[in-house]
Structure formats: structure tokens, C-alpha cells
Amino acid sequence: MRRIIQVGVGGMGSGWTDRVAESDQWEAAAYVDVSKKNLMVAAERHGLPRNRCFTDLDAALNRIEADALLDVTPQQFRRGVCENALRRGLHVMSEKPLADSLRNAQAIVACAQKCRRTYMVAQNYRYQPVVQTVKRFIKQGRLGDVGYVGVNFHKGPHFGGYREEMAYPLVLDMSIHHFDLMRCLFDADVRFVEATSVNAPWNWNKGDATVMAQLELDNGVVVNYFASWVTTGWETGWNADWRFEGSKGVLLWERDHVALSSAPQKKRAVPLVKWPKAHQAYLLEAFARALDTGIEPETSGRRNLNSLAATYAVVRAAKERKRIKVSDLLR
């Protein structure tokens, strides 16, 4: 069993503590959180001794032997947490987004390379039966040539905290999941983007929380992305609703259901592939496998830079009202 220090055990972090506890590859070496209450709740839930709970990361790194660190902190703390662990010789997996800026993201990736450590980003949306079903369907050519894709995402969460203070909360905190899924489904990077940002009259966030964007992948497929975090009615699932238009028909993905339509008003269900472990459980296995084999993970920090850059490209495109080349942001 490999030992992992988890930083951030409240909120989303509580789910990660559960997955680590269930893992046959990892065991919790220590918990770190600024909240003593979060630490005590997590420690009691999983039977971790209190002398392995810390409110200070340096103290944990100085006292606890571990193989890796799991960063579940808000993105503005990502660089400090990850670089500290990497320089201490630990491998790192962090929540998404990779960082709170492209400069910080590139710095983390460079640090991992310099320290010869694995740095992996938890793009968990990739590892679901429905996603793998769509990916295989497209890869097998069953849609023929895919020409364009429509993605609709509408949610109305009231998170409070730092998200509601962000300039573009939807794009910079959530949309990376969908942009990364585009890259996953087509094994292609985002090349160009255009976008319009909308501040709805009832928006309860400080920044714009609705966007209409077009993303062109480097295989030529164009994706129309319409998303909002301030809907006042019917919501989509977190994966969004997707429509893939191909020369042999239309593939529809709504919530956890996939259907193929090759004639108006007709569609038939597509059975989902078997996928034994999903989301965080799969990521923990993939992380361990990467360390065992030395093979770069599919969602390594280096590979994930394009997903993050796409989010900042959308913001720039909305601000400047022009077409943005994503790779220009990574120079």
C-alpha cells in the first residue's frame, strides 16, 4: 500500500477521504486542513489517529512519511501546496483546475519535471461509463465523420464563498470539465475559441456566470458550448447534454443515457460499456499505476495544460471580442 497525505478534507475533500479509505492501492498517511473541525470529523470517520492530523502542511511533511500528496484545496492555493510536496520528493495528484492562472500552472508542471515526480490532475469526468461509451462509439467510426457538436449545461448552484466572488466563476471553475471532456472524446486539443459572456439580470455571482462559446479542436471538429450557472428552472446533469452530428447519424448524450438517431423522430438506446470503477476511485488506481509503471498519466499536468488554457482563452475571447488561438496563451 502506498501512503498519501490529503490536504483539504472538508466539502469535496470528504468524498476523497472516503475513496482513499476504500482503495486497495492507497492508505491515508495524514490529513491536513485549516479547519480543526474538518480534521476531527474526517479522522473520526476513518479512524485516523489525531497525531496524524495537521493544520499546517509543513508540519505534516516534516513528520509524516508518505509516497504522495493529494491536493483538494481551492485553486488559489494549488501552486504553494503542490510545489512544496514535489520539492519534498512526493508525487502529487490535485483537484482541478490545475491552478488559478496559466503562469502558476506552468510553474507547477515545470517543478514536477525538475523534481522528476509525477503530477496528475483529477479530471474525474473522463472516467464514467457514459463518457467511455461515447468515446468508443466515435473512435470506432460508428458516427462516420463528426462535423460539429452541441453542448448545453445549465445549473443554478448557490455555492457561496470564493466561487461567487470570481470574475468568471462558471468558465474558470466548472467549464474545464466540459472542455477536458471534448479533448478526451476526440483525442484532440482545443485550437481556437470565440465567446460571448453574459451577466444575467438575476445573477447572484460577482462575475458573469453564463457563456456562449465556440471551440475548434485541432481535428477540425467545432463545438458550440452554451452554459450557465444561474438557471432559474430545469437543470441539466453535471456532465451537460451533448449532441454529436456525424455523417452516419446523430449521437445524443443526456444525463447518463446515450442514443443514436439516424432518422427524424427516431432513436435507439446505446448500451453503456462496463467500467468497474469511476471518478475518484478510478483516478486513485490510475495514479498508482502511473507510479508503478513510470508512464505519464493521461491527465498529467503537462497534458492538462490545454484544458486549462482553453478556459482562459474563452475569457479572453469574451473580453476582447475576437478569435483566440489557445496555444498563444501558453507561450
CATH superfamily of the largest domain: Dihydrodipicolinate Reductase, domain 2
Average predicted local confidence, pLDDT:
96
Biggest sheet: strands side by side, in what order? Answer: 14-13-12-11-7-10-9-8-15
How far from one another are the termini?
Answer: 40 Å
Uncertain residue segments: none
- The counted number of beta strands is 15
**Continuous helix count:** 9
Your description of this structure?
The protein is α/β, with parallel strands linked by helices. The protein has two domains: 121 residues, Rossmann fold; 176 residues, Dihydrodipicolinate Reductase, domain 2. Helices cover 35% and strands 25% of the residues. The chain has nine helices and 15 strands. The strands form two sheets. It has a nine-stranded mixed beta sheet with strand order 14-13-12-11-7-10-9-8-15, with helices on one face. A six-stranded parallel beta sheet has the order 3-2-1-4-5-6, with helices on both faces. Strand 4, helix 4 and strand 5 form a beta-alpha-beta unit. The protein starts with a strand and ends in a 6-residue tail after the last strand. The mean pLDDT is 96.
